[in-house]
Design a protein that fits this description.
Order of helices and strands: EHHHHHHHEEEHHHHHHHHH
Radius of gyration: 21 Å
Strand content: 5-15%
Distance between the termini: 70 Å
Strand order of the largest sheet: 1-2-4-3
Structural class: alpha/beta
Number of helices: 16
Helix content: 40-55%
């Protein structure tokens, strides 16, 4: 009886231990950071070992296979199209070298050119140490100096074709967009990895884990969701600065276009984020309005305009307050990021650092009124 093919439990492991004493720019205290990132190719290698081989799919095993289940958790956080059942149907077809009828996981490119994906997976697996070093050196100044972090960087060849995402202690780097020009896009891939790994770290040391849109049931939760998105995406964009993109491949060109446009109009994007409070309001269709603002500001469909708004806000805070207060504010509830920025925009305005709308600040203040003194941004300025 033919045995179903099972993925290996662990990919190739590269460990980078960061032990730094940060003097002039230490965000909290001078002590050791310990950052361990595993570049995991086993999930991609499993899929490549299934496509066009005729091997049986081991459903029982895959129901508990963490890299797959975390990816499905992410994909279904906004829509249920890419669920586990859809994955099984797709993989069974791909094993037979057939493009799934409803190819929501994008197996078609692998079926069409499997060798190209084998090459790009091998390249990124070998480049694990370079990715880890870049991640650690870039993020260290903006992390708690006593942070002990371990996470997986998973090479992804299905699902979203470009960029990446972080979920449940794992970061997924999408290789589809990189398969045709992986060397030209390598530096950009390192920057994306840094951005997304920082997201996973945020869940370890930020005040609260970000909400999913599907869990928002009231306007109050809607604004919390919006503030959390701005804090998380804005600070990740600021720390892994996309203005430094130098690659020439498809992904680099795409993201550089986003970045050039976003950074050219930061003041406008900050004002627009403030207007979101007036747009969403408490109208009967507030949730649809919130969704539209989210899609415009925090997804590729809208060129992720609020990433650059949040990054501009963080940059102005560091320039006016210093790095230590900025990192302190990042640890607090998300509305404190809004209020801390507003304070600096009013006291040290510039062409870029413009105040947010009164309606948005009123909402942030209403949330802040419920916080203890040590959870307010003023506690970071002492």
């Amino acid at each position: 009886m033919k045995q179903p093919f099972r993925p290996k439990q662990h990919g190739q492991r590269f460990t980078w231990l960061l032990a730094l004493v940060l003097i002039c720019c230490a965000p909290i205290s001078a002590s050791a950071q310990n950052i361990r990132v595993t570049v995991n190719a086993s999930y991609a290698e499993y899929l490549l070992g299934m496509v066009c081989t005729g091997k049986d799919v081991d459903e029982e095993y895959l129901r508990t296979y963490a890299p797959l289940q975390s990816q499905i958790e992410h994909h279904t956080s906004m829509s249920n199209r890419r669920n586990f059942d859809a994955f099984l149907i797709s993989l069974e077809a791909a094993s037979k070298c057939e493009v799934p009828e409803n190819d929501v996981f994008r197996f078609a490119p692998i079926i069409e050119d499997k060798a190209k994906f084998e090459t790009v997976v091998s390249f990124f697996k070998q480049q694990g140490p370079a990715i880890e070093s870049f991640v650690g050196e870039t993020l260290a100044p903006y992390l708690p100096t006593d942070l002990d972090y371990e996470g997986d960087l998973i090479l992804s060849i299905i699902g979203n074709p470009c960029g990446g995402f972080a979920v449940s202690g794992r970061f997924y780097l999408a290789l589809n967009c990189l398969a045709g020009a992986y060397q030209e896009d390598f530096e950009t891939a390192k920057l994306i990895s840094t951005h997304e790994i920082f997201h996973d770290m945020q869940h370890n040391f930020f005040f609260e884990k970000g909400m999913d849109f599907k869990d928002v049931t009231t306007p109050h939760e809607g604004y919390r969701f919006l503030f959390q998105q701005l804090l998380m995406e804005g600070t990740a964009e600021y720390v892994a600065d996309s203005r430094h993109i130098t690659g020439s491949g498809f992904l680099s060109t795409l993201l550089k276009g986003f970045s050039d446009n976003g950074n050219a109009y930061i003041a406008q994007h900050i004002r627009t984020f403030g207007y979101a409070a007036d747009v969403i309001g408490t109208y009967p269709d507030w949730r649809a309005r919130l969704h539209d603002m989210f899609m415009m500001g925090f997804t590729g469909a809208g060129r992720q305009l609020f990433y650059y708004a949040g990054a501009g806000m963080a940059r102005h805070m560091e320039e006016t307050l210093g790095r230590e207060p900025l990192v302190c504010v990042m640890h607090l509830p998300a509305e404190q990021f809004i209020l801390a920025y507003q304070s600096t925009a009013l006291s040290s305005p510039s062409e870029i650092a413009v105040p947010l709308s009164p309606a948005m600040i009123a909402i942030a203040n209403s949330m802040s009124d419920e916080r203890a003194a040590d959870l307010r941004y003023e506690s970071c300025l002492k």
